[in-house]
């Protein structure tokens, strides 16, 4: 028996995934991430912020990285894009984009992939855009650098991009500066910059943060349209369960720098196989009566300096036992439902994945 909080995202996920079911198996793998590990150097020593993360992104599909703030989602995205802070190091792993391991390339070599192969949309458009250049100049930069267009040709491409992402009167607004646009329009400009050269992979890091609900829906609709037009693989980073249910085909749930569960969104939301995933779903306030107590996950994620030796979720888990404290579970195919054969498409890192829905 599913809770009301689980039922609503499940229904939305089923509707969103239904239209793409016939094509999903035919979609090519654009990105393969294997055993990705990122370290951060601090005054207290080196800590592991991303640990052995692995997933795939497919053409024309959206993979959501889901989890609370601080669980490693944005750090994973920065590692993929090669824009980590100076105190961060790519400690291990492979980032294979259409046959090329980006992790093995130098910083200069990776620049060739920024734009034509990989685009990224940041969550704060006002800081991501340069305030002293017009949006036309910034939109046209990719065409000047990668395609050798002159200023006039680049301006024409910038106007076409603005039309493509739904910015009104682009011929006149191409000469405007970022502060002269609303938050939603600035986010559209960021998206336009990211997709200018039709990349194979688009990373969207909390693309609707600080936008009102109506604008959020418009931005997500735009991303969906661009994904379908260009058959891009999209990695969507978010903590919003409703957005994941509406937009994503598959999901990787992250906690304390680790992927603890992954699989098709409709299946993961319908039948979670990790207590953290279940806790997230049950925390959604759906169909609650007035005065009813909101359900939440007790405790908070561990500090990076204090990750436990066993399961990373042990301090908040209602199923914790001695084996959880002594041995860290690894991602393995989960049996869906209990008693059936494990499915490679569904993975969970829990010693008691078949008992999750009994609590």
Task: Please give the largest β-sheet.
Answer: 8 strands, mixed
List the strand order in the largest sheet.
Answer: 6-7-8-3-9-10-12-11
Percentage of helical residues? 25-40%
Give average pLDDT, whole number: 88
| Secondary-structure content class | alpha/beta
> Into which percentage range does the β-strand content fall?
15-25%
The count of DSSP E runs of length 2 or more, i.e. the number of strands, is: 12
Spatial shape = globular
- Ranges where pLDDT stays below 50 over 5 or more residues in a row are 1-26
- Specify Rg, calculated over alpha carbons: 21 Å
Q: Give the N-terminus to C-terminus distance in angstroms.
A: 11 Å
In DSSP terms (H or I, runs of 4 or more residues), the helix count works out at 14
Order of helices and strands: HHEEEHEEHEHHHHHEHEHEEHHHEE
Describe the structure.
The protein contains 14 helices and 12 strands. The strands form 2 sheets. It has an 8-stranded mixed β-sheet, with helices on both faces. The protein has a 4-stranded antiparallel β-sheet with strand order 2-1-4-5, covered by helices on one side. It has a domain at 128-198. The radius of gyration is 21 Å and the shape is globular. The relative contact order is 0.15. α9 (183-195) runs parallel beside α10 (213-230). It has helices spanning 4-18, 21-24, 73-81, 107-111, 125-128, 135-147, 151-164, 170-173, 183-195, 213-230, 241-247, 265-270, 275-282, 322-326, and strands at residues 29-42, 45-58, 62-66, 88-97, 100-101, 118-121, 201-205, 233-238, 250-255, 258-264, 332-335, 342-348.
Which features would summarize this protein structure in a list?
35% helix; alpha/beta; 8-stranded mixed sheet; 359 residues; globular; single chain; disordered N terminus
